[in-house]
Amino acid sequence: MPRMERFSYIAPTGRLTNLSVSTLDRLALQRTPSLSASQHQQHPELAKWPYESTEELPPVPRIPDRGSCSTCSYAGHPALRATMQQTAAETPPFCPGTRFYLAFAALAALAMVVAVNGTTVSVAMPVIASAMQGSTTGVMWAGSAFLLASTVFQPVYTAFSEGFGSRQLALVSVGLLAAGTLTAGLARDLTMLVVGRSIQGVGGGGVTALTAILVNDLIPLQQRGQWIGILGAVWAVGSTFGPVLGGALAQPQLWHWMFLATLPLVAASFMSIVVFCQATPLTASLVHGVKQADWVGSFLFVVSITAILVPVTWGGVTYDWRSWRVLTPIGYGCTGFIILFYHERYVAKRPVIRREVFSNRTANIAYITTAVHGMILWSLMYYQPLYTEGVRGFRPVVAGVALLPTTITIAPIAIATGLAIGKVGRWRWSIWSGWAVTVLGTGLLCALDTNTQIVQVVVTDFIVGVGLGSLFPALQFQLQSATDSKHLASAVAMFSFCRGLGQTLGVSISGNVFQNALRSRLAKEPLFADKAQDLARNALAIVQWLDTTPAGAEKTAMQQAYTDSIRVVYIFMAAFAVAATLLSIFIQHYNLDRPLDTEQYVWEVDPDIKQPPKGILKP
Fold first, then answer.
1. Are residues 107 and 36 part of one domain?
2. What's the superkingdom here (predicted)?
């Protein structure tokens, strides 16, 4: 009677499982013919299996997903196939344990810190401009620098995570986030503040990208809905708390603490990742990771996207659009992208931007529409406080509270949408309804005026929050369901990059639109025509002027000009929302019932397995 032997493998469900195979079946497996070269390419995870050897089987072989390849004798072996099918059927559903909850809590806390850092400055910009005697453009960079750095480094982190490990890079990004936060909190001039915010952004970009990857490593797709919704809710809580914190600390002697106050949470999250987020170790060495990393592509990408985005914020405000200071860096950036395309296509072994992630229409629409989503949300975060402070005369802390109808709505709507998608197994309804409500909300924003009733403002902000909140999990499901598992990490990184790009454009381009509209509007106003250019360049200082100027013709004219200029921003956002709605008509349905398939498996403690398995991952 053949005896049974046990070894560990990753089941099709993604669970680390003990597999029993008789000694006779084991010998049969060893006699299986070796794979051809083409079959090795099709199943690289089997390349190291000792097919013709009499050596002991490796302790953790990687079973091909669902065994669909008929040419692979190993995958098609009847004894092992039957055992695999029985094991998959008997494997219990995703059941998170203590380690999972603690690891997820650390990731959620970091997501909230990034959200807080992204939104605190929006309410406090007039105070910071006054305290540091900086221009509107300079203070805008305190917000834009964080978003720009966060955006451009997200694909870089993802590409490097394949060689160095997502958990290790997550720790690096948290360290950078802490260093940037400390630098910004101790800043004594505008230059140091922008530098600190840039370092914050580099760390925050890593947190954003790697959090998404680690969540994919933790949770199967069909069960991912509620957890994505929770992350969206946590982000919304951070976005809600950020403006309130910024408003409460928007004083000349206290504004530094809007950065320093988040440091304890960053430190606690760092330690939680170290202790609780244990991922399967990569088999490749650090030297191998350094050699395989796409350093040239990363450099070209960062330089090229920066060379385009920075002058876009200058055009029409700091410099004329036809100025060489605007056109030259844009030209360099476009040239850099051409070189980057060639390098990624023909040279890079592990490209930063993988063309496979753009091979699906539904996924491509997700990239575009999530950029629009980020653009609308961040434009609202930065310009609704200007409306409430400058036009309605609210104090900064009240202006932060005035954002609550939007920000506090996003959290429960995101959770409810994620749960509903996981329950029904379909997601397109949430895309279409989310964009329809967003179009309605942004359209109503265009109707705001100097004498609009506060109830109308609250209802309008609430409607926008419902639309944007439902799109948070819906857009992620759109991308992940339409993307092949082996490209999911790169696709998620591109998705995060597009959202960050939209946020950056939402602040930068909207600022450009607002200041140009204000200059044009003031040029037509007899009271301000002779100084329209200077006033537009220091638009944030107008908020302080309106706060101290008594009622009269000048104040009324300025409030109307301010309102009209903000309305132009909202018209742009409404137009983008309509375009995203029309694009979403063409998305296709994809099934969510898919097993967990990841190369950097984040393991849960199993009583039968005392240590994390070694050698699961290929180099």
1. no
2. Eukaryota
**Domain co-membership, 225 together with 304:** no
Which 8-state DSSP code applies to residue 552? S
Residues 289 and 301 in one domain: no
* pLDDT at site 569: 92
Rounded Cα distance, 124 and 128, in Å: 6
Question: Whose CA is closest to 469, among 401, 403, 404, 416?
Answer: 416
Q: How many CA atoms lie within 13 A of 18 on its CB side?
A: 9
Does residue 608 fall inside a structural domain? no
CA dihedral 489, 490, 495, 499 (to 10 degrees): 100
pLDDT digits (tens, 9 = 90+) for 9-42: 444 434 444 444 443 344 334 333 333 334 444 4
Contact 62, 10 (CB under 8 A): yes
The conformational region for residue 18 under phi > 0 = left, psi -120 to 50 = alpha, else beta, is beta
CB 512 within 8 A of CB 315: yes
- The pair of structure tokens assigned to 57 is 């089987």
Tokens of 50: 């000792």
Helix/strand/coil (H/E/C) assignment for every residue in 506-529: HHHHHHHHHHHHHHHHHHCCCCCH
Domain around 262: 98-294+349-584
Residue 8 three-state SS: strand
Considering the domain boundaries, does residue 596 fall inside one? no
Which run of H or of E encompasses 20? strand 16-22
Instruction: Note whether 50 and 180 are same-domain residues.
Output: no
pLDDT in tens, 463-501: 999 999 899 889 988 888 888 877 777 787 788 888 888
From the list 61, 93, 91, the residue with the least C-alpha distance to 77 is 61
Q: In whole angstroms, what separates CA 345 from the centre of its chain?
A: 25
Residue 331 Cα distances to 249, 308, 311, 443, angstroms: 41, 8, 10, 35
Cα dist. 22→27, 28, 76, 546, 613 in Å? Answer: 9, 10, 16, 83, 22
CA angle 106, 112, 115 (to 5 degrees): 145
Strand partners, 9: 17
The rounded percent of the chain whose pLDDT value lies above 70 is 74
Count of CA atoms in the C-beta half-sphere (13 A) of 347: 13
Tokens representing 184 are 């910004």
Look up residue 272 and give its two tokens: 């939680």
Q: Phi and psi for 20 in degrees, rounded to 5?
A: -100, 130
158 falls within a domain:
yes
Residue of 167, 251, 261, 152 whose CA lies nearest to 214: 167
Query: What is the greatest pairwise CA distance in the chain?
Result: 101
The tokens describing 369, both together, are 């529409």
- Segment among 70-79, 182-191, 324-333, 337-346 with least mean pLDDT: 70-79
Last residue of a domain, one of 67, 90, 113: 90
pLDDT at 152 over 70: yes
Q: How many domains does the chain have?
A: 3
Ramachandran bin of 155, using left for φ above 0, alpha for ψ from -120 to 50, beta for the remaining angles: alpha
> What is the distance between the alpha carbons of residues 382 and 379, in angstroms, rounded to a whole number?
5
Are 162 and 282 contacting, i.e. CB atoms less than 8 angstroms apart? Answer: no
How far apart (Å, rounded) are the C-alpha atoms in residues 244 and 580?
Answer: 30
Cβ-based burial of 177 (10 A; exposed 0-12, middle 13-18, buried ≥19): buried
Both structure tokens of 524: 């037509």
